[in-house]
Structure formats: structure tokens, C-alpha cells
Amino acid sequence: LDPEEFRRQGHIMVDFLADYFNDIEKYPVRSQVEPGYLKKLLADSAPNQPESIEKILQNVRKDIFPGLTHWQSPNFFAYFPCISSTAGILGEMLTAGLNVVGFNWIASPAATELECIVMDWLGKLINLPKTHLFSGGGGGVIQGTTCEAMLCTIVAARDQMLDKVGRENIDKLVVYASDQTHFSFQKAVKISGIKLENFRAIPTTKATEYALCPISLSKTIQEDKKTGLLPLFLCATVGTTSTTVVDPLKPLCEIAKEYGIWVHVDAAYAGNACICPEFQHFLNGVENANSFSLNAHKWLFSILDCCCLWVKDPNSLTKALSTTPECLRNKATDSKQVVDYKDWQISLSRRFRALKLWLVLRSYGVVNLRNFIRSHVKMAKHFEELVAVDERFEIVAPRNFSMVCFRVSPLALQEKVIFVEEDQVNKFNAKVLESINSCGNIHMTHAVVGGVYMMRFAIGAPLTDYRHINMAWDVIRNHVNVLLKNLSS
Ligand code: PLP
């Protein structure tokens, strides 16, 4: 590593990325390449001789860019946002440059201590109860993804229970979620060794706007208890992936408490909005949850990956996940005065992720972070109003945050087709979405809830402004006009 050469190439790289952000609207938002496109463009084997950064970046522009879906494009409205920011990118750069491996405190004390501090900062900001913070006996850790956070907490709950009832009873453990819970929960359950037959995805209905109904949870638990099963874990969601519905934490946590069930709250996207006091009511009841996580890389400018997990009882986590081989023994660990984060996660080695979150919180300050979130929510309201005044469209789920779920309504089709069935409406909307995504001007994704196919318009890319929302609405209407016209001809 030659510091002067690093300086030279680093400047080139920063210029390259700054140009990328300047030009980002020129690229089709969703990649338009066919599978296997890259193999045809690149050499069969690694080069023997060194190549210059200039040449490599030329290849990035020519060969890699076409295969990118541009998540930071202001015309990206798909999935949930995964927002870049200057502070986040620079934080990542600092992490990569320092490249410390803070598996335990002694391996890099600042990496651990900063993480403890920023996790308390962020926890306070979203108004988590003190019991979940280091300052109140709990604590937080930065993991890669929500799926990892779910796995770690299930394993902690599993071991806590099996210590009481005996390891041989693992097949009796039952976990609960709703049919709207993110599928990564099922993956975590699968890895944890809990029987998949004991995974209850409790059906939700339109009556509760697809939130998990406490009565349904209670009935399901009682049925399981009657057959001798052991209720273990509930995953509740604040802001589901399909429609951003919020499960009622208070009654759900109360029921869980009655049966000694561990509650994890997955607030991957919407938890970030809780830095604004007006959204904090969605967390009412969280004081009775055992763990809570959000993805700061989704809507808090912190660059993938930055999943923040808080637990009320860190001992339950470390009991399940700790290993202390002789080679890692040290005075600090033995003193029990320090956090060794290797015992709070799946892997041993870990990146200094706290830096980027620290940079984001410091560089923007709470005031600006709240303003960003609020501006996205305001733009979503604006889009919702545009949809609402065009009678050919309908909003199909209540908007809680910065995502609008809508579709072309059956009424629009009735003008062209005599008998309109739900399946036809779904197929038409799917055609609209594919047509829009194929043109590359904007990108949205879909969900199917209660048999209804809906388009999701999720706002949060860092450069999105009202101009892009209005343009997106024009694109959507133009595609619908053409497809409706084709329907009649
Ligand atoms: N939970 C919710 C509510 C999500 O929306 C998502 C992803 O969008 C996840 C979990 C999965 O997150 P991860 O990819 O971090 O595991």
C-alpha cells in the first residue's frame, strides 16, 4: 500500500462517483441486460499483469453500468429505499481504510465503544425504552441484515427455553408471525433448527388492514398449548414489506408476555421514521418486546449494511452465541467490564460499521435527518393525491410512511371490457408494471395482498424531488393510456 498512490487513485475514484451521481438520471433505472451478459464481455481469467485504475473504471462504465439497477437514481421507487449519502459513503471509506477487525474489545477498543455509544444515541432518538439501551441494562449491536438479527434472537430465545425444558424438546418449539411478516424470518427459523411445521404464519385480513390480530395470535397459541407444544417466539412488524402496515405491538406483546414468549419487533424500514416524534406512537408497547431491529441502511442514509439490533437482556444473546477460544483470551474479557461483539452475532470477524452511522448522525444532525424523512413522507402524500384524483386508479392500502400502494382500478377496465374479474385486473396491473419497468424511466415493484396485485411506489432515494414524482406519474399514466387503448382494439 503506497500512500501517495492511494491518494492519487482515491481522488480518481471520488471523481468517478461524483460524475456517476451527476449523470445518474441518464441510465435506465432497472437494468435492461439479459442473463449471462457479463461473461460475454469480460476475459476468461484474471490478468497476469497489473492494469491501471483508469482502464478498470472505463470497464466499469462500459460493462458494469449496463448491468446495474440504479438504486440511488431519483427515479428509483422499487422495494424499499437503500439510501446513500455523502456521510455514509465517507464513513464506509473510513471503515475500509482503517480496516480494523473488532471481534472483541481488545482487538480494537474504539470500534466496540463507538458502536455501544451510537447504538444508545440511535435508540434514544427513536425513543426506545431505556431497558433496551446500554445505559439501562440492555444494549445494541450493528449487524449486517435483519435476517441475521432475527436468527440471533431466535437462537437466544431457543437456548433460553431449552435450558429450562431440556434440549430434547426442540421439536416442540413454536414460532409465530403473520402472513405479512418478511420471508427472511422463515429463513432464520429454518437455520435455527426449529421445525418448519411449527412455524405459524397467522393469516391476516382486510378487516385489520393486514395487521396481525391479537385475538388470532391468542387462539393459535392456545391451540398449540393444548397439543403440548411450547410457544417460543413472536416476530411482530412495524412497517410490513408489502404495504407498510404496523402490527399492534401493545396487545401482541401483552399476550406474548402472558405465555413467556420472546417478542422480536422487525422495523426494518419504518423504524427509521421513528426518529421523528410524530411516528413514535407506532412503537407503543415495545417496552415489552425482548428485541427490536431496524435497517439504518434502508432509510437512515447509512449504506448497506447497517442493521441495528437492540436487546433487553444481552446475556441471553451472549449465552447462546459466545465462544472463547484460548487464542482470544485477554484481561479485558476476563474482567467482564467490556462488550465483546463477537458474542452478539453469527460471525467472529466484524467491520467497524459504527463509524458510518456516527458520521451520518454527526454530519446531518437530528434536525436534518428528521427533515429528510419528513420530505419523503410529504412527497408520498403528494403522489397519493395525484393517484386519488384520477378515477382510473385507486389506492389499495393505507399509507403510513413514504410508500403508496395503488393500482389501475377495475372501473378503468370496465369501460373497455364487459365482465371484469379480479384476476383480469391483477394481470392488467402486472402488465402495466412490466411495461413501465422495461422502459427504464422509473422503477417500481409490486406486492400481492389479499389476492390484490398492487404497485408499490416507495420514495426515499437521495436525489428524488417533486419533479421526479410528477414525471413518474406522467410515465405511469402514459403506459396505462397505451395499454387501456390496446385493450379495446
Ligand atoms: N423485514 C422487513 C420489514 C423488510 O422490509 C425487509 C427487507 O426489505 C427485511 C425484513 C429483510 O431485511 P434484510 O435484507 O436486512 O434481511
From TrEMBL:
Entry keywords, A to Z: Decarboxylase, Lyase, Pyridoxal phosphate
GO CC annotation terms, alphabetical: cytoplasm
One example of a Gene Ontology biological process annotation: carboxylic acid metabolic process
Cofactor(s) of this protein: pyridoxal 5'-phosphate
Entry GO MF terms: L-tryptophan decarboxylase activity; pyridoxal phosphate binding
Modified residue annotations for N6-(pyridoxal phosphate)lysine: 298
Similarity comment: Belongs to the group II decarboxylase family.
PANTHER family the UniProt entry points to: GROUP II PYRIDOXAL-5-PHOSPHATE DECARBOXYLASE, TYROSINE DECARBOXYLASE
Name the UniProt record assigns to this protein: Tyrosine/DOPA decarboxylase 2
Organism from which the protein derives: Capsicum baccatum
